[in-house]
Design a protein that fits this description.
mainly alpha; 3% strand
Length: 396
């Protein structure tokens, strides 16, 4: 069952990658067309929501980022919990290499970005922008370019990306949470504790879980803690056991139910609202400033260097083990695909450069360049590795 659930997750993520690309392309086209004013008016339109003492006003993009994307992080959190308890992350030997690779894939890009932005014109606070990997895009490129490569390579990339996302959520919680409202934070903690207790009631109505998630999310939003943290925290309270004998686990039910909506609706909507920016307001010289240069180099160079370098060292010192049937050349190609930051990088860039339109547009342009370059380079190397495998047979 663990293997089947992992493969289902892989197939959905890979399938949604093309839709994400189409949504991002549509955003860029519309943002630089005669309909640009309408696009930006829609994205920036203010929407107020008030229910009792809960009162929040945000732009459409803000509600997608802080509202709908919380559901994305809920699904990511459930996938992390499943993989840790029953999936690929449950085996220490399988876990070591992708975890170390994910760690390298966060440290090295951050150092490269900081090296480019420590000067007087730099923006060092934006270093988390290039530390995350877009699961959907990376797996889509892998599935389209080399469908016959070993399944272990796909599982390695998925495991690495999940660990990477967990690190990104931690960074968001630490770096980008605003001033904390203690009473609201206490309300979130109490609601989360109630959800944990609810998990002991095997036949609890699913509506109770949904209501609990909304309550925790509302308190988190009021408290100043980023909503992504609320999503992951709620995911960890969902029981992995079944409600009745012979049924799927509650966690699997929620994952199966929510994952298609996240992959085919929420993420494309986020891409459409977050990816669009006007090229007219972006002078060529701005693309050579520290922020875009740092982001692009971190994705294109830092990601594969960190992922592959840490994986190689881990295997050399016998701390980790290379995935069965996967060559180092194929692992390098997967490491290059980790430079496809896209959705997560756009999400973090919106937090890091909030209120600075010029820097945010420059970062978005660099994310596009870095992600596309990483996808093309990684895909090309993997296609060559596939041709080599076909020509000389299964490598030793």
């Amino acid at each position: 069952m663990a293997r089947r659930l992992t493969l289902d997750f892989l197939n959905t993520e890979a399938g949604s990658g093309l839709l994400l690309a189409a949504a991002a392309a549509a955003a860029m086209i519309v943002a630089n067309s005669p309909w640009a004013a309408r696009y930006f008016a829609f994205v920036d339109a203010r929407v107020a929501l008030q229910i009792g003492d809960f009162a929040q006003t945000r732009s459409v993009l803000g509600w997608v980022k802080d509202g709908l994307m919380a559901i994305f992080f809920l699904v990511v959190g459930m996938e992390i919990k499943f993989e840790v308890l029953r999936g690929e992350l449950s085996s220490p030997r399988r876990l070591a290499l992708p975890i170390m690779a994910a760690l390298g894939g966060m440290i090295v890009p951050a150092l490269i970005y900081l090296a480019c932005n420590l000067g007087p014109s730099g923006a060092p606070w934006g270093w988390p922008t290039a530390t995350a990997t877009d699961i959907a895009f990376a797996l889509a490129v892998l599935a389209i370019a080399v469908p016959r490569l070993p399944g272990a390579l796909r599982v390695f990339l998925l495991t690495l990306a999940i660990a990477d996302d967990l690190g990104a959520v931690g960074l968001i919680a630490i770096v980008f949470s605003s001033k904390i409202d203690i009473p609201a934070m206490a309300g979130a903690a109490v609601s989360l504790a109630a959800l944990s207790m609810l998990s002991r009631w095997k036949r609890a109505p699913f509506l109770f879980y949904a209501a609990g998630f909304v309550i925790v999310w509302g308190f988190a939003l009021q408290s100043g803690v980023n909503a992504s943290v609320a999503g992951v925290a709620c995911a960890f309270t969902v029981p992995i056991g079944a409600r009745r004998a012979g049924q799927d686990s509650v966690l699997k039910y929620f994952m199966d139910s929510l994952h298609p909506y996240v992959a085919y609706a929420i993420l494309p909507l986020f891409a459409f609202t977050a990816a669009g920016f006007s090229l007219q307001g972006l002078a060529p010289r701005q693309l050579l400033t520290p922020v875009p240069v740092g982001v692009a180099l971190a994705l294109i160079v830092g990601k594969p260097l960190g992922v592959f370098g840490f994986a190689l060292v881990s295997a050399a010192v016998k701390f980790g083990r290379r995935p069965a049937g996967v060559t180092w050349l194929e692992l390098l190609g997967a490491a290059m695909l980790c430079g496809v930051g896209f959705t997560m990088s756009l999400y973090i860039a919106a937090l890091a450069f909030a209120g600075s339109g010029g820097l945010q547009d420059a970062a978005r342009a660099a994310i596009f360049v870095g992600s596309i370059t990483s996808a093309l380079a990684g895909g090309a190397l993997l296609i060559w590795a596939q041709a080599r495998r076909d020509r000389i047979g299964e490598p030793a």
